[in-house]
């Protein structure tokens, strides 16, 4: 089969959308390796795909790869600087990374004898920063 260039581009766009949707589903199911693979595949076709970069950053952070997660989100923000969701997520990753590097967590952030719950810390940080960012946006409007 041969396709016209515009048909080929349209098929590639559909493929990348499917890969992004798979990554989102895999993230919700906590299948991080599969989600990362889907993001990498999408980015092989479209290196500047915002959704793939954002989801890859999220997967990497959930796997504890904060430096790589921050790099992925920075690239997404450079491509779309007005994306407030990416900005808030980047701040959350930076905060978690700083805490992780300093290892100065209060004892209330740990589960009994199982160690630190990074999912909990990540979520709490994202919520806190999201609230701050929302306050800034509201204040800027007034």
Write the H/E string, N to C.
HHHHHEEH
Task: Indicate the low-confidence ranges by residue numbers.
Answer: 105-116
Indicate the percent of residues in helices: over 70%
| Widest sheet: strand ordering | 1-2
- Alpha carbon gap, first and last residue: 58 Å
CATH architecture of the domain at 5-103: Alpha Horseshoe
CATH topology (fold) name of the domain at 5-103: Serine Threonine Protein Phosphatase 5, Tetratricopeptide repeat
Per DSSP, the total helix count is 6
According to DSSP, the number of beta strands is 2
Per CATH, the superfamily of the domain at 5-103 is: Tetratricopeptide repeat domain
What is the beta-strand fraction?
under 5%
Describe this structure in words.
- It is a single chain.
- The protein is mainly alpha-helical and 142 residues long.
- The chain has a domain at 5-103: Tetratricopeptide repeat domain (Serine Threonine Protein Phosphatase 5, Tetratricopeptide repeat, Alpha Horseshoe).
- Helix content is 76%, strand content 3%.
- A hairpin with a 3-residue loop joins strand 1 and strand 2.
- Helix 4 (66-79) runs antiparallel to helix 5 (84-102).
- The chain crosses the membrane at residues 84-100, 120-140.
């Amino acid at each position: 089969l041969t396709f016209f260039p515009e048909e080929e581009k349209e098929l590639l766009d559909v493929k990348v959308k499917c890969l992004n949707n798979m990554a989102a589903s895999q993230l919700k199911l906590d299948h991080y390796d599969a989600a990362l693979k889907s993001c990498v595949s999408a980015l092989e076709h479209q290196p500047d795909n915002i959704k793939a970069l954002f989801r890859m950053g999220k997967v990497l952070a959930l796997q504890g790869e904060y430096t790589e997660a921050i790099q992925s989100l920075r690239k997404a923000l450079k491509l779309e600087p007005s994306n407030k969701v990416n900005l808030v997520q980047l701040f959350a990753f930076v905060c978690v990374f700083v805490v992780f590097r300093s290892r100065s967590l209060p004892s209330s952030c740990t589960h009994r004898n199982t160690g630190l719950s990074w999912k909990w810390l990540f979520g709490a940080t994202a919520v806190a920063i999201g609230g701050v960012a929302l306050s800034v946006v509201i204040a800027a409007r007034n």
